[in-house]
Each structure stands twice: as C-alpha cells, then as structure tokens.
# Entry
Amino acid sequence: MESTKNSPKEFFLHLLAIIALYMSAASLLTLLFQYINVLFPDPLAYASYDGIAGAIRYAMASLMIVFPVYIFISRMLYREYLAEPEKREYRFRKWLVYFTLFAAGITIIIDLIVLIYNFLGGDLSSRFILKILVVLLIAVVVFWYYRKDLKNALSVKQVRVLSYGVSAFVLLAIIFGFFTAGSPLKARLYNFDERKVSDLTNIQYQIINYWQRKEVLPAALSDLTDSISGFTAPVDPQSKMAYEYRITNAPLPSEYKNLSFASKIQPVYESFELCAEFNLPSNFGLIGRSVNTYPAGAVNDNWDHAAGRVCFERTIDPALYPKINNVAPAK
# Structure
C-alpha cells in the first residue's frame, strides 16, 4: 500500500484540491467585498464602475471554474477515503491539511486583532464590520471543516449537507453578481457608451485646440481633419454615424470684449454642443459611475448622461484657453 499512498495521482489530486480551495476562498472573499462596497459606499473613496464591475466579473469567472473543480476533486477523494480509510494517513495530505488549518487560524487571529484595534479607535462603520465578518466566516468554516476532516469526525450526511450549503451560497453570490455588475449584454452596451464618451472627449479637445489656434470654432467636424497628425473625427462605433456637432452662437461675455485677440474678430463664438446616442444612463445598475468621473473644468467637462440622445453644451473660457501664437521662429 506504500506505493499507492505515494502515487503521483494522489499527490496531484490533493495539491489541486487545496489550490482550488484557496482560489475559491479568495474569489468569494473578493466578490463579497465588492458587494459590500456597492451597498455601503465610502464617501471618501473614488469607485468607478470599471473598477468594481471588473473585480466582480473576475471573481465570478474564477468561482465558476475553480469552485466546481474543488467540489469534484473533494468528492472524488472522499469516496476513496470511504473505500480505503488508510488513505487519510497519506503524509502529503496531512501536511496540506495542517497548513490549511494554520493559514485559517492565522487569518482568524489577525481578523480579530483588526476588529478590536478598530473598535478601540472608534472606527466601526457598517462596511468595515461586514468585511471583518466575511473574512471571519470563511476562515472559521474552512478551519472547522478541515479540523473535523482530519479527525474523521464528519458523517456522510454532514459532508453532503455542508457541500450543498456552501455550493448554494456560492451560487447565490455568483447570481447576485449579474444584478450588480450587469449582464454580458449590458456590459457590452456600457462599453459602447464609454467609447462614445472617449470619442467626444477627444473631439472636444481638438475643437478647443482649433479655437485656440484660429480664434474661431470649426464649422464642422470635418474641419478638424489633420493629415499631418493623422486626426480624423471618430464616428459612433455602434451606428457608424458621425457625432452631432453644432455651434450654439453664444458670443463672448462682455468681460472678455477688451481682450486684444477678441477685439480682432467680431463676433467670436465660443459655445458648441456635442451630441450622441447612449444605450444606458451613466449611473445604471447598483454600481453606476461616479458623479465626478470626469472632473469639471473650464469647459464644463462632465459627461454624465441619460439613455437616449444626449447633448453636451460646452463654453470655452478665453482666459483659461488663450490664443496660441503660431509665429514662425526667427532665422
């Protein structure tokens, strides 16, 4: 039986089971942490949709693959233990189990230390307490199960109930992810909207640059075409149509009339609109986007939008975007 205990099959099955356990626990922890961040947002923390949804999707993907592997391998090994109880004494298996107990125990200790430390410091926010409890719950379940398993103190019924219970919890956590991060279809629609915002931002920059150099807004987006830099106004990636642009014919405010460059061009138009068709509102779902995803500036640079056709009105401040002198250097 010595060769059976030390066979490559046994070695790699036990190693795969433990690795799958660690990956599953880490992914579940990440997933639950992100749900807490969504339900209890920190007003001092900047949280973008991409950051939270990306973490949720990666954790979901990991759980969908790794957790079933862990369950499958664990059941396979458990059946072998029932058929050949001496396999529980496999030395490599005991090393892995004891290491898992050690890691879970250290996690519990550190978790409680952090909890007491923050309690003494008066920092007991809901999000903090929930994250501490989540870590404690996962560590305690892992520690309890492997301590019982090491002593062979679990009945077949207990193992089955625990397996079904944990699997149901993981499944619910994954399902909730679709409501939080959005379905694959919504994710693609969101990506289209983000591309449109990026295009509009780029077009806006080119319009401002054009205005600074020529002291007049372009009559159409085609005027921005530059064969040297290679810039051509992008089109809507979804409809393949050009973005809407128009000058709103707002003259310079009176306080800028005395500026030397402004007096040379009468009238000077400094306001324009950019329009696009969006699939989703910028704050859709439970996560949404930060209200200040794009910080406000001299051109009211905010791209928050509803679903449907949305126009963004921009007004260039000549004091903040002065004329750029295109004077050839002296020879």
